[in-house]
Design goal:
It is built from eight helices and three strands. By secondary structure, it is mainly alpha-helical. Strands 1-3-2 form a three-stranded mixed sheet.
């Protein structure tokens, strides 16, 4: 009985990954992979570079089951929009560069080589600035909201009406707010929901005028 359930569950997961792959725009299908994550307590969905010109969207399929099909679709298209907007973090060279720069600075202080010390400090400055850029909260939120807007447009490309696209993404946020214990992450979903409501109101007013 257990073996049968496991096999059935694995088949359902493979079917879902295959279904999501078909939701990729044709221009992305050759270089964007969709896989289930095997990490402990991972994000619901995220993307990362796995090689040159290749990106993998990773899904926590256990949490994914708590969402309806429409909710899944819009959250998936949000991730697709991030790829299209080129806001996926690149390979993390910054921490290694910062460590090398700091190590070099300490070493050059010891041997008192002024030019090499300046180069080491420059490396620290560049890598530190890049790390700050990556972790800048306002910039990250802006990119996230832009991806939400683009996810709505992608949904209409795949046959959703604008009202249904907004409704599906909004209901996804409401579900995630209820299911997310982390206060900071929950606040981020609340911010996205409020921004989505404002966007939906503007779109509704614009449609009335036209």
């Amino acid at each position: 009985m257990t073996t049968s359930y496991t096999t059935s569950s694995a088949r359902a997961e493979m079917n879902e990954l295959r279904r999501l792959k078909n939701l990729l725009p044709p221009e992305l299908q050759s270089w964007v992979m969709v896989e289930g994550t095997t990490e402990v307590n991972p994000p619901l969905v995220r993307s990362e570079e796995i090689g040159k010109d290749e990106i993998e969207i990773q899904i926590d399929l256990a949490k994914w089951e708590n969402l309806s099909i429409d909710q899944r679709n819009l959250l998936f298209w949000h991730e697709v929009a991030r790829i299209q907007n080129d806001t996926i973090p690149k390979e993390g060279w910054e921490m290694a560069a910062l460590a090398i720069g700091l190590g070099g600075a300490v070493g050059e202080l010891w041997v008192q080589d002024g030019l090499l010390l300046l180069l080491a400090l420059a490396l620290c400055s560049v890598s530190g600035y890049r790390l700050w850029q990556k972790n800048n909260g306002d910039r990250t939120l802006r990119e996230t909201l832009e991806a939400d807007e683009k996810a709505i447009k992608l949904a209409t490309r795949f046959g959703y009406t604008l009202p249904n696209a907004y409704k599906s993404l909004g209901s996804a946020f409401k579900t995630l707010i209820e299911l997310t214990p982390n206060r900071r992450q929950r606040k981020r979903y609340e911010e996205r929901l409020q921004a989505l409501k404002r966007s939906a109101s503007k779109t509704k007013e614009s449609m009335k005028q036209t």
